[in-house]
Amino acid sequence: MEYPKDIKFKPDFRSLILVWAFAESGIGGFLHALRLPFTGILVGGIAVICITLIGYYKFENKNSILEAMSIVLLTKLAMSPHSPWQAYVAVIFQGYLGHLIFKSNQFFSIKVLIFAIISLLESAFQKVLIAFLVFGKEFMSSIDQAAISIANALGFSSDISIVKTVFGIYILAHLLAGIAIGIWLPKIPSQLNLLIKNMPEPENYEKYSSQIIKRKSKVIFSSLAIFIGILLLLKWILPEVKGIELIWIFFRSILISVMLIFLIGPLIRKFIKNKWTVNKDNEEMFQTTIARIPEFSQKAICWIQYVNKYYVGISKVKYLVLGLLVISGTSENENG
Fold first, then answer.
1. Which of 20, 155, 160, 223 sits 20 to 30 Å CA-CA off 261?
2. Reported pTM
3. How far apart are CA 30 and CA 300, in angstroms?
4. Is 237 part of a structural domain of the chain?
């Protein structure tokens, strides 16, 4: 794959939709190999970046963000139909928020910061609320009691809620990420121009892609095993807790999870299919996005490998995102 060395790079509408759809349709699995914490922040951050750039360039359509959102939702339904329903809610929230905020480019830097912070916080609070809904107050209280019991056994006196502390750190991480993305985003257009002049050749990705498949197949079983292990640990640390209470916590969590997956999820997907359908206005864009994702995914995996090998920390995240934007644009030029 060769990249032009002397052009002024500007992502086009189709390319930004492609990157956004790619982020929402499975990039999370690819990102595990980057060994970065909070990969959900990166996925949400890519969505924020794509929406902001669509709003910034406008593309001669005042509803371009909503149009892009509809294509992303339909692509996500087609390529990742079993995605959690919360992910669809996040896409819709970000899309409409971006549409409202980026009606004009006045005070653009301030708008970007506000948009990034709100979008990332929405994602964080959504997951915290669902955690409380699924596991319930009893489970959270048991976690706190166990933590206090361990602290007392070690000779420490503490009444700090470990659950609130963990959730607070989680929300704070999203807030800081939103601030960082909001500050960085206005610089992206110029940084894309610098990167494309020195874009390296991607490396082979076959070994890495096989690792992704193996990892994804174990997620559900390992999560269930961890949950059961925590309940058994709670019973050992807190013998006064009745076994029937832990059994109730387990089955309650399973029941609510099943309802969210098999009742709420299908209702939201049905709503999306009825609200945003493939029609003559967006069919060509939808089919183009679907057709381009497999090839783009291969190139993206190559780039992820390259970034993972040669960059660390914040630079790894920065060049991952910039590279995806460049690859999507140059792929469009090659296909065009």
1. 20
2. 0.82
3. 9
4. no
